[in-house]
Amino acid sequence: MTDKHDRQQPDQDLSQVPAKPPREWDPRIDRARDFISANLPVLPVPSIPEIRLHRAGPQSGLWRLAEQDPEFGSPYWAHHWGGGLVLARYLLDRPDVVAGRPVLDLGAGSGVVGIAAAKAGATEVIAADVDPYAIAAIGLNATLNEVTVLPVLVDQAMGEPPATDIVCVGDLFYEAALAERVTAFLDLCLEQGIEVLIGDPWRAHLPHSRLRLLAEYVVPDFGAAAAGSPPSGVFAFESKTPRQNRGDEDQS
Ligand SMILES: C[S@@+](CC[C@H](N)C(=O)[O-])C[C@H]1O[C@@H](n2cnc3c(N)ncnc32)[C@H](O)[C@@H]1O
């Protein structure tokens, strides 16, 4: 996808424009793709038997990626998270929610939510992440699951929402500053009539007062104790102004 800020104006003299790769291009994406294919086994996903993913195991040696890249961050894309699993499960159980609609998977990681949306019949799925390694993983995982998902390397908490009907957010409220930026972006989405769904295992910075619970499932969370975990939730993110929320208009 071309960012609108990168598009040439028709009257520009192209000879004066420095050659610049598209914004989503990053040389690490190709290297990551080769590494993931070679080292991360294809494994089933807990609670989502419909989907398989390249997931890190004890022998994957992710430290080798970190050694080559001083900017290597937390490899969220290599693991499963409660928020993504619960939202993917919901979309597969309720395909009517996304069928026939374009979807943005925001903070896509492995791409599990976007892949579930595509399997449920979404017309177009954009999977946005800031991490080039996630972009590589999403591409491989989409192919593995025989669906079309467009991975886009972008800080999606900045700028305008893309043209979409519904934004799906799996597990993005784990840090205060990020939660604040994401919430502001989701407010922009609501203002533009875009529906927002959130899947989350009740992380610390979830904007509780803005959420309407739609469903709960017990799903595992990477690194958390397997036994006794409370159900994770799927929520509709709602406007600050109650009258704008779905349902209120129907009663007026
Ligand atoms: C905990 S992981 C969740 C991944 C996936 N949604 C899931 O539930 O399995 C959070 C992901 O959000 C991405 N992320 C963080 N900030 C972002 C931003 N501003 N725009 C896009 N992606 C972002 C991270 O790189 C990471 O892959």
TrEMBL record:
GO terms for molecular function: methyltransferase activity. Keywords: Methyltransferase, Ribonucleoprotein, Ribosomal protein, Transferase. It holds the Pfam family PrmA. GO terms for cellular component: ribosome. Residues 1-10 have a biased composition (Basic and acidic residues). GO terms for biological process: methylation. Residues 1-26, 228-252 are annotated as: Disordered. It comes from the Bacteria. PANTHER family: ELECTRON TRANSFER FLAVOPROTEIN BETA SUBUNIT LYSINE METHYLTRANSFERASE. This is 50S ribosomal protein L11 methyltransferase. It comes from Rhizobium mayense.
